[in-house]
Write a structure and sequence with these properties.
- The structure holds three protein chains of three kinds.
- Chain A has nine helices and ten strands.
- Chain A is of the alpha/beta class.
- In chain A, strand 1 and strand 2 form a beta hairpin.
- In chain B, a hairpin with a 2-residue loop joins strand 1 and strand 2.
- Chain C has a single domain, classed as Orthogonal Bundle (ABC transporter involved in vitamin B12 uptake, BtuC), CATH 1.10.3470.
- Chain C contains 16 helices and four strands.
- In chain C, the strands form two sheets. Chain C has a two-stranded antiparallel sheet with strand order 1-4. A two-stranded antiparallel sheet of chain C has the order 2-3.
- The longest helix of chain C is centred in the middle third of the chain and has 28 residues.
- The radius of gyration of chain C is 21 Å and the shape is globular.
- The model of chain C has no long low-confidence stretch (mean pLDDT about 85).
- The chains are: A alpha/beta, B mainly alpha, C mainly alpha.
- Chains B and C meet through helix 4, helix 8 and helix 10 of B and helix 6, helix 13 and helix 15 of C.
Chain lengths: ~230, ~290, ~325
């Protein structure tokens, strides 16, 4: 695919001597919503860590608009327009809600997202803008984490397990907000344990199993059987 | 009454100097959890830099600050980016031992360059000028020093809570990894924190040099005084650091009043007592 | 599969050879008074005392994670206790040497309770404050010369042994003995249950805690043992110097800076590191000492470079990934192949 926004090609990733990813290939085009599924320890978070630069890889293993970025620093990759909503939210506890959002927009990239727009998406955050971010409920914290990523006006937003540890009703409301986020042609990679949710919001799906891509295809086309096989390797 | 009032006032003013020693230490610990063993030697290095500038250019030591403060800031940035950043990463030993090595290097380099003879920055009439305030007379220099300390600490506090740099400092202190996702270069933020810390250190060094004589070996005890002020005041509380400095200053001047040889020891004892009864300091940050 | 052949052992062929060799070296060194010059014997004595200091600091910082920059507190305490016991209390020097480490432990206990409240790097500076308090206190003891110090009178020296040869030989044997004692103590401590606990704490404090290891008590014990033995070494140092003063006894350069550099250069967290580091340090000192302050600057730079580029020191480089051990500490499973 010549016009891929993000082109992952033969990506290996290591934690010291332990290899966590083996030759992962993934092409993401402008406007795609990719779901990445897989069991615990399959390498989903490792893939996020490699793309964002927390794990260094071969420079050419990851290309962004043709540029080799595998060996860049985390902040350099972020400034290219790749944002991550990390697993566990990881807000800044000594910053207020609003400061968490402002620091997300530190890069001052141009785009539709600003404080005003964010507050209209998540009105509760405006109400509680001056409290420490960690004083919020889990669901509200997740909104801040998503908002913090959006504030940089990224071209690609990656969300790692955004429903983990949240009540079903909260998860529902966050997923309801998703279309208005990715609706404007933003590209997204969503890591999700809940396969039904993942398939519902995505255009394409990748399944990881023990560090390798075991399945990829259009979300609308893949059968549950194929997913089970790819997921559990049976 | 005057017998105790005078050392009390002198002690409070001396506390300003100790708060300046402590502010830089507190800042870099707050932002990057680094304790710089060479901090005291960098204070003394600043005093020597001021000595050289004021002697060669014929400047008043306070005017020399215009050169020494930016110089030390650059030293701080370079030191952090090219040396200390390579020691950061969870393990306690590397930063401690590298700054310890740095301390020995600075001390001996100063010894080679300036010999072991005590030096003093000459501030002319300012050194002896004083204002009579009721029963006690207050030195103009200690007063300037104290006001400077209050202003510096106020500015640091403001910077921390009301500027983009302060926000980046706090975010980096919270989560050194995640802050990079905001496009913030952590190595650069660390460099800026050290630059700012050494700018304050430069100020402390010049005032130290005007107040008392100094030689290459006095850095260690300046580090200790700054450290004691930080612990007495409570970690992470910058106004607490000022209070800690003042308490230490009062302890020392009162100790000296009892016996001149008891001055420093009295400060240490107060520190140890506070460590025994309030291990988190008098004004710990609430979190 | 004949799994009866599987067994756990600590010794390797290398460690057996090296332990035997070290035993021979110690024997040969013990005979030094009959084959070496007086100057050499003094040097060997000094090397022995530095091996002891370095091994003790390494035990504290490299194994227990208690990075102290104030061990001069106990070196100085040892000097002053030894002079106090012999000079003021009129004790026989040997008796004083036996009592000195006990006093070190007794003094260290409340100190530990206090400074253990400080974490990590602040603990380090806390130890420095303690050594300053000791130094300032020593300077107030006018019976031991106050700020200017005091010499050991001839009567005390003579009480040690008759004749110069025997006296110097005895002082040397004591120094050599304490180096062997400290190395052996560290060796057996690391092989004991406490030692395993210690290494567990160093590798992962949280995991060690969940295994039921009382971290505070373990560190407390190590601190006390180290303090007691450092006090003994201090007493021996000033028995050799025959003069004690606050600045010499509590010198942060002599008893902490050099010692830390030695351990960093040799290899932190290994039993071999401090010994190798001491030998390198003395080799450098004997050749470069004339350089004075430049020598200290160079030593600081070498230590920084090693800390950054080869944090496991010279021994770490030699040992490589194969985990060579001259002292058998680790357990190995035999019979797998």
């Amino acid at each position: 695919m010549a016009d891929a926004l993000l082109d992952i090609n033969g990506l290996d990733a290591f934690y010291h001597d332990f290899q966590a990813l083996y030759g992962v290939d993934m092409q993401v085009s402008q406007g795609d919503v990719i779901a990445v599924i897989g069991a615990n320890g399959a390498g989903k978070t490792t893939l996020m860590r490699a793309v964002t630069g927390f794990l260094k890889s071969r420079a050419e293993a990851i290309r962004w608009k043709g540029q080799a970025i595998g060996a860049l620093r985390v902040d350099q990759i972020a400034s290219l327009g790749i944002a991550l909503v990390p697993e566990g939210r990881l807000l800044f506890p000594s910053l207020s809600v609003e400061e968490n959002l402002i620091i997300g927009g530190q890069l001052k990239r141009k785009g539709p997202w600003n404080l005003k727009r964010l507050y209209s998406l998540f009105p509760i955050l405006e109400e509680r803008r001056n409290v420490p971010a960690t004083a919020l409920s889990g669901g509200q914290q997740q909104m801040v984490a998503i908002g913090r990523a959006l504030m940089s006006n990224p071209e690609l937003i990656m969300m790692d397990e955004i429903s983990l540890g949240l009540a079903p009703v909260i998860i529902k409301s966050i997923y309801e907000a998703l279309p208005s986020i990715v609706g404007e042609g933003m590209t997204a990679i969503i890591v999700e344990q809940d396969i039904t949710k993942a398939l519902a919001v995505s255009t394409r799906v990748f399944c990881l199993q023990e560090g390798r891509i075991s399945l990829s295809g259009n979300s609308a086309d893949v059968s549950r059987d194929a997913i089970s096989r790819a997921y559990f390797g049976v | 009454m005057d017998f105790w009032l005078d050392p009390l006032v002198q002690g409070i003013l001396l506390g300003g100097l100790y708060a300046l020693f402590a502010a830089g230490l507190s800042l870099i610990f707050g932002v990057m959890r680094l304790v710089n063993i060479a901090h005291g030697d960098l204070i003394v290095l600043s005093a020597y830099m001021a000595l050289t500038t004021s002697v060669t250019l014929g400047l008043h030591p306070l005017a020399a600050l215009v050169l020494v403060v930016p110089f030390m800031a650059v030293v701080g940035y370079v030191l952090q980016r090219f040396l200390l950043n390579h020691t950061m990463g969870g393990d306690l030993l590397p930063p401690l031992l590298v700054t310890f090595g740095l301390s020995v290097i600075i001390q001996n380099a100063l010894l080679m360059g300036y010999s072991a003879d005590p030096q003093k920055l000459k501030a002319g009439a300012l050194e002896t000028a004083s204002i009579a305030a009721g029963p006690v007379s207050v030195g103009v220099l200690p007063l300037i020093l104290f006001v400077t300390a209050v202003v510096v600490i106020g500015l640091l506090q403001w910077m921390f809570y009301h500027t983009a740099l302060g926000r980046a400092f706090r975010a980096t202190s919270d989560r050194q990894d995640i802050v990079q996702l905001m496009g913030i270069n952590r190595a650069h933020v660390f460099g800026l924190a050290m630059a700012l810390a050494l700018a304050v250190t430069a100020l402390a060094g010049v005032f130290l040099g005007i107040r008392t004589s100094f030689d290459p070996a006095v850095g260690g005890s300046r580090l200790i005084f700054g450290f004691e002020a930080v612990i007495i005041g409570g970690l992470g509380n910058i106004w607490g650091t000022l209070a800690g400095g003042v308490i230490l200053g009062i302890a020392q001047t009162l100790g000296a009043k009892i016996d001149p040889g008891f001055q420093v020891q009295a400060g240490h004892l107060v520190f140890l007592i506070i460590l025994a009864i309030r291990p988190r300091g008098l004004f710990p940050r609430i979190d | 599969m004949p799994d009866t052949k599987l067994h756990v052992s600590r010794t390797t062929r290398l460690s057996t050879i090296s332990m035997t060799l070290m035993f021979v070296v110690v024997l040969v060194l013990a005979c030094a008074p009959w084959w070496a010059s007086r100057a050499d014997i003094r040097l060997f004595g000094e090397i022995s005392l530095y091996i002891a200091l370095a091994s003790l600091w390494n035990l504290l910082a490299g194994y227990a994670g208690l990075v102290s920059v104030g061990q001069q507190a106990y070196v100085g305490l040892g000097g002053y206790v030894f002079f106090g016991l012999t000079l003021l209390a009129g004790l026989n020097p040997i008796a004083a040497l036996l009592i000195a480490p006990l006093i070190g432990v007794v003094v260290a206990a409340p100190v530990a309770v206090l400074i253990f409240r400080l974490r990590g790097a602040y603990f380090a500076i806390g130890t420095w404050v303690v050594s300053e308090v000791f130094r300032l206190t020593a300077a107030q003891v006018s019976a031991l010369g106050g700020g200017s110090g005091i010499s050991l009178p001839v009567s005390v020296v003579n009480a040690l042994a008759q004749g110069r040869f025997l006296r110097e030989a005895l002082a040397y044997w004591l120094a050599l003995g304490v180096a062997v004692l400290v190395t052996a103590a560290v060796f057996f401590l690391l092989r004991s249950r406490r030692g395993v606990a210690l290494m567990a704490i160093r590798d992962n404090e949280l995991a060690a805690k969940s295994l039921g290891i009382d971290i505070w008590v373990t560190k407390f014990v190590v601190y006390l043992v180290t303090a007691g033995l450092t006090t003994l070494v201090g007493a021996l140092i000033f028995l050799q110097k025959l003069r004690v003063s606050p600045d010499a006894a509590f010198s942060s350069n002599d008893w902490t800076a050099f010692v830390i550099f030695i351990v960093v250069i040799g290899g932190v967290g290994t039993i071999e590191g401090p010994i190798i580091g001491t030998l390198i340090y003395f080799a450098l000192r004997e050749t470069l000492a004339d350089l004075g302050t430049i020598y200290l600057i160079a030593l600081g730079i070498v230590a920084i470079v090693i800390m950054l580029k080869a944090p496991s020191g010279v021994w770490g480089l030699i040992r490589g990934r194969r985990g060579l051990e001259l002292f058998p500490i680790s357990r190995r499973i035999r019979g797998l192949d």
